[in-house]
Design a protein that fits this description.
With 273 residues, the protein is α/β, with parallel strands linked by helices. It is built from eight helices and nine strands. It has a single domain, classed as 3-Layer(aba) Sandwich (Glycerol-3-phosphate (1)-acyltransferase). The longest helix is centred in the C-terminal third of the chain and has 26 residues.
């Protein structure tokens, strides 16, 4: 569930749709999602006490792209956005995940069953054509790898989502998440260790690896998730189309950054609302 936006235009395994088969072409397992619901609801309602606003801005039907800021070293932010959509809009939110996850067989299988797909333009378009809500993190891995000192300073948005939205004329919904940056206060990254493990990096926090497995327990911070009003993107044809797409991506980034800043001002402290 990490950083799908950066890879959405890259080559990756593509799924051939077979709607008549009656099965989800990406491997979604609704029964597994239902079994997971009590656990993710505990995290959502009790542990992080997620306060959700703007859920009425989510479409009740049809496709849309949800674009969120990314953080937290481990993608709990994606899990909580998916849970919020399920609880407040009764819709299944699909998500794209980075291709390196395919190197971790059990994790990739779990992601697919939970509603994910490998990040590629073709897979994103296929999900949108099925009428799905699709979650992207346009910051990609640089977003989730931010250090504690850089928390809530959004990285550059990839423009891949602009081309996706224009291809099928679907709305984009900006999403702001506050609280996830502090669950793992990242102070450094062990990139060489990550490469040995087949991942971009291993996060270093004040508690990990010093406290071993105890250091992997996320802190019980107070979370806010805000769904903004749907946007319709417009980029005219012409030689400057790529530049205009980047400009549109930058505009959406500024929108999400402003939403994040407002949510931070509402919060009394890291652990309380």
């Amino acid at each position: 569930m990490r950083g799908g936006g950066k890879d959405a235009d890259s080559a990756a395994p593509v799924v051939t749709l077979d709607i008549e088969a009656g099965e989800d072409p990406f491997g979604l397992d609704p029964a597994l999602r239902q079994r997971m619901l009590p656990a993710v609801r505990f995290l959502h309602d009790k542990y992080w006490r997620v306060e959700v606003s703007g859920a009425h801005n989510l479409p009740t039907g049809g496709p849309a792209l949800l674009l969120a800021n990314h953080s937290g070293a481990i993608p709990f932010d994606g899990a909580m956005i998916v849970t919020a959509v399920e609880l407040h809009r009764a819709r299944t939110l699909r998500f794209l995940y980075d291709r390196f996850v395919e190197n971790m067989g059990p994790v990739a299988t779990f992601y697919r069953k939970a509603g994910g797909a490998v990040a590629s333009r073709e897979n994103a378009l296929a999900l949108l054509r099925l009428g799905e809500l699709v979650l992207l993190f346009p910051e990609g891995v640089p977003g989730v790898a931010k250090t504690f000192a850089d928390r809530y300073r959004l990285r550059q948005f990839s423009s891949g989502f602009v081309r996706l939205a224009l291809a099928l004329d679907v709305p984009v919904v900006p999403v702001a998440v506050v609280g996830a940056e502090e669950i793992y206060p990242v102070v450094g990254r062990a990139e060489s260790v990550g490469r040995m493990l087949g991942v971009p990096y291993v996060p270093l926090t004040p508690f990990f690896p010093l406290l071993g497995l105890l250091g992997t327990i996320p802190l019980p911070t107070k979370w806010f998730i805000r769904f903004g009003k749907p946007l319709r993107l417009s980029v005219p044809d012409g030689e400057a189309r790529t530049q205009r797409a980047r400009a549109e991506a930058a505009k959406v980034r500024r929108k999400v950054q402003a939403m994040v800043t407002r949510l931070r001002r509402r919060r009394q402290s890291i652990f309380f609302g």
